[in-house]
Amino acid sequence: MLGLGLDTPGTWLLPRPFSIGWRSERGLIGILLRVFGRGTRALSALTPGETALVLGPLGTEFEAAEGRTTECVAGGVGLAPFVFLAAEEIAAGRPVRLVYGERDAEAVFDTDLLRELTDIDAEVFTEDGSRGTRGRVTAGLDPAADSVLCACGPTPMLAALARFAVEHDRDLQVSVEEHMGCGIGTCQGCVVRSSAGRWVKACVEGPVFRATDLDWGAP
Ligand SMILES: Cc1cc2nc3c(=O)[nH]c(=O)nc-3n(C[C@H](O)[C@H](O)[C@H](O)COP(=O)(O)OP(=O)(O)OC[C@H]3O[C@@H](n4cnc5c(N)ncnc54)[C@H](O)[C@@H]3O)c2cc1C
Ligand code: FES
Description:
By secondary structure, this protein is an alpha/beta fold. Helices cover 18% and strands 25% of the residues. The chain is built from 4 helices and 14 strands. The chain has helices at residues 38-44, 80-91, 111-118, 155-167, and strands at 2-6, 13-18, 22-23, 29-30, 53-55, 70-75, 96-102, 123-126, 133-134, 148-152, 172-175, 191-193, 199-201, 208-210.
């Protein structure tokens, strides 16, 4: 994870959290950016030659396992960390599956670009069926698969996957989408509740957690 902000006069912006989307052999990094509000709009308006504040890398990352498929389950902008993860795993010769859900076809990221960056085809699900398979990403999962299950997306999706994982005795890692203020553990703006009843900071102890380490509340 990176914190990305602006420090140009007149456009001061506290860093917002972003996943490292990809890296090039020349040492450049890229991010996948979706515009939600003021911060992402300002960052998307940057032009070549302008500078941004970059803080990182921060927090924890997904862990793949030798000899097992990494099954990435993405909802919306939760796709971003899996572009990097999939590309790294494929480059290391390990199999990856990418299951990617959106509300509708209009929200789906450029799948040709995704293939170019990762070397795999995403399996797309949309809630209204306007692209790919109709339904939620959970419908695309085989309960009996022996994969490493990794998920990133809105909390209700992660909670549904956490229930799926418990029900089918699957290991699941989740990257939570908390709003963040500082990214370095000082502001308390990103806390999530652990299964032990403790508040934990998603920016330093996460954003990637074992699903069983978090409290998902009642279904
Ligand atoms: C660990 C982590 C990694 C992330 N990686 C990426 C990434 O690689 N690419 C990317 O585009 N975004 C990513 N995000 C989300 C991104 O950080 C937010 O979209 C951004 O902080 C929003 O800032 P803003 O100022 O544009 O919007 P704000 O002004 O803060 O919010 C505008 C509106 O959008 C809503 N909103 C904000 N974020 C989200 C969201 N994620 N989903 C749905 N609604 C939201 C707010 O509730 C509010 O209503 C990541 C978030 C986390 C926690
Ligand atoms: S973002 Fe400030 S403590 Fe986590």
